[in-house]
Amino acid sequence: MKNTNIIIDGKNLKVPSNFSVLDAINKNKQYISQLCKDEDMNALGACRTCLVEIEGIRGLPASCSVPVSEGMNIKTKGENLDKIRNNVLSLTSGMLSKNKSGKDYKDLSTALNYYSADKNKFIPRERSKADTSNTVFDISMEDCILCGRCTTGCQEGAQFIGAIDMLGTGNDTRIGTFNDEPLVDSVCTTCGQCLSVCPTGAIKKKPDPVEIAKSVTTTCPYCGVGCGINIELDKNDNMINVSDDPTNKSSLGMLCIKGRFGYRFVQHKDRIKTPLIKKDGIFVESSWDEAIDLIADKFSGYVGNSFATLCSAKATNEDGYIQQKFSRVVMQSNNIDHCTRLCHSPSVEAMLKSLGSGATSNSYIDYEESGCLIIAGSDANSNHPVAASRMRRAVIEKGAKLIIINPRRIEMCDYADLWLRPKPGTDVALLNGIAKSILDQKLENTQFIESRTEGYEEWKKIIDDYTPEKVESITGVKSEDIIQAAKFYAKPKFGGSCLIWGMGITQHTNGTANAHSLLNLSLVTGELGKPGSGISPLRGQNNVQGCGDAGCLPNSFSGYQVIDDNTVKKFNNAWQTERIPTTHGYVVTDMVKKIEEGIVKAMYITGENPLLSEPDLNHAEKTFKKLEFLVVQDLFLHETAQIADVVLPAASFAEKDGTFTNSERRVQRVRAAISPIGKSKPDWEIIQLIANKVAEKLSLELNSQFAYNSPSEIWEEMAKLTPSISGINYERLENEGGIQWPCPDTNHPGTRYLYETDFPRGDRAKFFGYSQGRRADEMPNKKYPLTLITGRILYHWHGGTMTTRSEYLLSKASELEVSINPHDSNKFGINDGDWISVESKRGKLEARAYVTDKMSNGEIFVPFVKLQNHAANFLTNPAVDPESKIPEYKVCAVKIGKI
Amino acid sequence: MQLNKSYKNTKELLVDNFEPKKSSLLQALHMIQSINGFISQDDMITLSRYLKVAKSEIYGSITTYPEIQLSIDNDFKECSGLSCFINNKNEITNPTDCKFKCFNAPIGFQSHSTYSIEKKEYKKNNELITPIIDSSEILSRPVLLENINEIKDGTFDSYNKIYHFNALKEALNKSPEEIILLVEESGLKGRGGAYFPTATKWKMASTKTSIQKYLIVNCEEGEPGVFKDRLIMEHMPFKLIEGALIASYANNCSNLVFYINGEAENSFNSLKNALSQMEKNGIIGKNGKINNSNFKLKIKLESGAGGYVCGEETTLLNTMEGQRREPRLKPPFPTEKGVFSLPTIINNAETLCNITFILNNSINEFKQIGDKDFPGTKLLSISGHFKKSGILEIPMGIKISELLNHTQIEDADNKIEFLAIGGPSSGLLPKSEFHTKLKGGLINENGIMLGAGGFIGINSTIDPIDVVINLAKYNSSESCGKCTPCREGTPRMVKQLEQLKNNSVNNNSINDLNLLAETVNVASLCGLGQAAGNPIISYLKYFYNK
To answer: CATH says B377-458 is which class?
Structure first.
């Protein structure tokens, strides 16, 4: 970047040539009022308080809108300038509430004080009423100076939600929603972007904020998008706020409601504060020594195949790495798995088979550069809100085509060019139909198919009879829409095409077939391995990518190094042991079976709650109770912890250091903001204590293999043994921010997208063709006439263990809601708002009826979260996909009735 | 807007007529409103989905367009524009902004009909014809109104008979650079009110390599008391289009847009008709080829939706893109990054008519007219207490007194005491200053500008303070609301002027009022705010305590 020489208040300066005069003044650390300019957004030029004098330019230009030029002579103070600017500030102050005394108007108060401008010169004028309809924050027009930062943040400046805009003109200008409705009735998602940019505090969280004493930058603990957050603390180390981190490369200063307002679980009174040992059916508080000793005593009796461990996709990479190492080295068991089995195992299985790697191939920025997005079986607005914002940017700002595949009318449908609404369980037919139509229209990428794939001819035969007409009869999707979708995806007008999917594809008994059918679309068109294209299974947990990367899998070590004689030798050498078993271990769903069969007898579960996340919960509970010894390590005494023999208090993300790896393979730092709650400890410390103690009981020499002093030491070891992350270290993460793997050496900048030249499985990716099988294991019948679809809602995360302990989130959704089509509600005599029961042959729940045309006839929707003891998983079907072993959470047969 | 087809619903109408882009918003709103009379909530939702624009943004934009209604409005209103205000003997109870029928003042208005308050009769808008005032005594040779009587029926034949589109043909035989040079040598400056040298603007856009470039003809005439562009569009459309085609060619433009005030329906129809006549007669080819040359152009008419600020060029660009009707920051200037981020030249309709003259004649002939430093003429919109109202073409540089002496527009028994010149943001000029020369830019040191050529004469029956209040109210009601000084300052100016009128002031408050006017002028974002203090500054100088 070229530099330009300028003079500010007599001082000679060299600044980048693309700077505005305001940028230059700020860089020079000379104070100047600037109420409408947000650091991260374009200049709006509305507040007119950053006025300056520039030699040779008439009047008093606003410095935000003047680019620097060579030799420019700028003054930020001067008699006439001060007079005019202060009068503008007085006019601004005249907009504010009648009683200003003692009120802090943040940036505006700072400016009024700095320049000694008369804040009472103008009598306050009438303003419109405050909007207090949102339970989380208020928009108080009498404190608003109409700078436009909030509306920009809500729309093109960041989130592309568009709940609020500037309305009206002149003195009637206001911040408001469509039709001037209350905010709560608008499309507002309570992401808080508006609040974060408000310069006067007109938009503010309820109740009034407290003074911030300390702020720590770390990574959000919710979904796999991996947003940067700042944890803000008062002087007593209470977490009082979470703000966005504008420097984060994945989130670009955005957050969603969970990230910004869902932090209260950390210091919630329900946190487990000491180890608990169950004595005569009752938990008794114990010391760490006693608990560890007991665990070691027991575990040492289950070395080998009778031991299994579930790692946590919420914990850090370092936690996961040490846990699998403990299991393999000390317990001699490869029975290691984590929740990916319950979300994306079909995607991972299919991608490993077809391509050789189970990760998202592209980055979020590729959404923004693509010409067509297919979002299949994913309600990204609810589950990955910040990634969804970047998808909306592609569609709204860049004009990308958007195709939604979903049986439910999700909010993203508002912006869709095509909404394909297949009957549940018919995805294979639909996707094969799109592929067939691509071939029929000769839109395939012949060069890519010939040079970079195999299995094409065999696959072509399988999909050959999926004509649009036939597919219409199976799926209910109109044939012309299938043809149009093929056109949009295969021939984007600019950039490439992105395939994005979620649990709606995977959580089926034909999940792997679905995933393969999706991947085949990207192979037949070559829409991966280049900018603006790619394949994205959106990851649910903050570190589900990293948990797998760290080797928390029954069949591979870190970096997906599959367990075989060679790798076992490598890791035996590295870990100075000869104990690692060479046979692959059990996946989660098999573990459950093996408990029933009496083979798995002891389990160590960290940061997972299978008794909420397993299907058919009544049955799952019976099974887990069969374990002879169960240790659960977590933040709260949840359903699984309650049946444990020992419960260990783990420190939350806010209390420990480490790294998370997000959906775009970006390794990011997690930093402790507060000390561990009570006697809780970070997972890696606890695992290390257990490892050493078990070894002691077994008289095992560990050769200081579990003597880490910090997570960075763990990372160093993992990086050394894992080629894909070898170039990443804490020092780089500190200096450069998050880095995307593969990153083979310390000079490597990280990788934006995979598969540019080849695939981990070799030169060629492989087509695997599937025919449409049975739609689902359990179809509606006379007794259970409706199809239950499960999913998520924006305000709760997963089972709700964290979000139900965050008042702001609970205030948005405290009851379970069942969405029902008006036709069905009529048929079953149910009114909107009725309290109803939903029953499958396995169980029952109660919830509030929400009558909506977002659902098709015969289909109802219940979110996954457990509220007031009711959860969808009491109803769901444990039948699994034969290849990936994922349960069919998405579809089962139910009946409903008024209570 | 006339439709050839009826539609089942709004969605069908949109699919049939508009691209699914935000920039379709304003024209789509016009079409829906022309059918239903207003925009319903369902229409807005349909628009939001079809254009992929958030509902709040659709609503946010609509609430800035005075002419887009969210319910049917058939109320009788009285025009509060300055000419109507000073001519209306009664208090205006249900006011509406200037309807640009100043030559018929005072008027009322109800659902597309104009009501003459004096004659007590309704007239459809197209029955009201803008009068032309004879200028032969002051102007040796008309530039703009040349042959106006022969061509004012607006037909192709009458124009073609005299001019044969020779200016265009001449231009197409020259290189674009030659034409720019010609315009530069002519010294032509923009007639929209800012008087920026036309060739300089063109050159600012000519350095850009973009394959697409826009010329937008600013016919969004929205200043109370100014109605000359309507005369041009309705009575000499071919002269305007010819000039616009020449300018498009000179600047290698790919697109030409006539952006017309939303209320000026007759102007819109006149230009539409003229363009189709030119197509029929092969001046504009089916494929956009101009007069069978290699030069191709896409031509479009668009309607604004009211409001003074809509004529501000960056605001105009925003409305073309479906954004709120408010100005953009400059830089980037439109010549660099205009509509759809493409290089864009925005020229006033009157400016382009001069181009036709220059190409039909010679630079010297043009330069012989008007002032040595400021060649050419200007169309004044005469109204108020003058005996005659209408459009008068004057040579640049003429003294006001000379103009009054030689045109017989003043009534000898009803002398004009002061003038409101240049629209709502210029100033008041007292009789003692009638020696002032009229030309582009500031005409005296107290902020009085010729602007777009509004020329309202006011006699002794009106207190100047009432005129200033009328103008200040207008500026306040037209503030788009984007920047603080204008949004907050203009209503406070009204309040302080009203206090001044009621004598509840002291020296301090006069200083405050002066400072407020200066603040609004200096600190506002766009040209309109930057002139909103002018009437007050000139009032305090010439009339207060005099």
So the answer is: alpha beta
